[in-house]
Design a protein that fits this description.
- By secondary structure, the protein is an alpha+beta fold.
- It folds into two domains: 1-35, no CATH class; 46-126 and 163-211 and 253-333 and 369-496, Up-down Bundle (Outer membrane efflux proteins (OEP)).
- 61% of the residues lie in helices and 11% in strands.
- Strands 1-2-3-4 form a four-stranded antiparallel sheet.
- Helix 4 runs antiparallel to helix 6 (167-234) and helix 10 runs antiparallel to helix 11 (446-480).
- It starts with a helix and ends with a helix.
Length: 498
Amino acid sequence: MTDLLLKKNSTDGALAVRKRSLLAPLAAALVLAGCMTQPVAPAPHAGVPVPASFTAGGDALPTAPWTIAAPAEAQPRGEWWLGFQDPVLADLVQRAGQANTSIQQAAARLAEARSLLRSADAARSVQVGASAGVTRQAGAATTGSAAPATLGTAGLNASYELDLFGRLSQTSDAARLDADAREALLQSTRLMVQADVAQTYLQLRAVQAEQVLVQESLAAYQDTLRLTQRRLQAGDVAELDVARVQTEVAATESDALALQRQQALLTNALAVLAGEVASGFVLPPATGDAALPVIPPGVPGTVLARRPDVSAAQAAVLAAQARVGVAQKAWFPAVTLTGNAGHASPELGDLFKWSARAWGVSALLSLPIFDGGQRDAQIEGAKARLEAALADHRGQVLNAFRDVEDQLTSLRLLSGQAEAQGRAVTAARRATQLSDVRYRNGLVSQLELLDARRSELRNRRQELQVRTAQYVATVGLIRALGGGWGEQPAVKLAQMSQ
């Protein structure tokens, strides 16, 4: 450019100045493109102060300091449900993974996101097409004659847009990040369904165990009723004693029916989770009590590394950042190269002769100047969506901390509650035994015996409910951590069913 300005020929100098003036907007655009900030991934805990350890660890559960962990959202979550050592649960989880409708919907959305990514990548490649047509036109400017003429054309067209400023590449990056987010959401949905299956199944087994307790109590009440009726006939007790026992029998039968209803609802919920029709869905009988997995120390340090919802939110932030860049680069020039080759002839019979061949090559530069504020509005909208994505990401991180704290607190307190409840059940059983012996020997009133049995039943049911809460909280912690916590016990279905 400097050489052109130093030439003595004024015509050449004027031409050089003109060229420089024409290239100035393009150079400025290149400088602006170089200054564009590239998307930067937010830290897994961006904007959230990271605590040194979980405050809910207490004495029952070990607390571990937070460590910097590499992203692990793509790692498998492990077959954590095998830790409960229940073959029926393992089979249900497998069936839900294949037929659950929520998982199928998430997989379909992932497939859609990947197709959009392929479409964005395809826009960066050469576009080739074929065309053919027949035109009837008149006019000296088009056919060289005032008489109407027919023009037939056939050929191939090719076009390619130069991605000088990275607009197309950033669009492709945004689509790729959207696909990453959908993949993380699929992982999140799969983990959610697995956790729902486990929690619903464990609650169902607890209800079935509670039904056994109620039936045992009902049998005891019925036995007491028969004894009281015989004593009434002998004149040893009043009719009031019989009415009291009849009340307990009827109330216990009502509890049994309520538990049957709850069992039916949980069974139907399991059928839907497994992707099956509730009508006719039957579970095999339980092989025993499910094991309660033990939480090893050091688990909380990597809670944010595998949580799929946090990974999805992070990918959404990156995609929003990329789209801000795409919106900003809409102001930059677009350069498109096009070419065509084929045949054109006023006679259809001569269309494919060698003499009728035709070709053309062109380059198109388009530069927006005024659009009434449309592009500025698009930039502001993209920035607003970025701010929303950042807020959502921070919310997901806060929820991750809260979820783990909730479950750790629950497990710590439930452990102490289960121990205390066990002592209460032992004492209640002994009290019932003593009251029954004393009542049969006529040493205590019937009211004392009924109170003892009610207390035993209440405490045994409470013990089952605490145990169920421990199962549910354990599954909730697994879900909060994004999956299992390491190597799963080598438990095979065949071994568990033995």
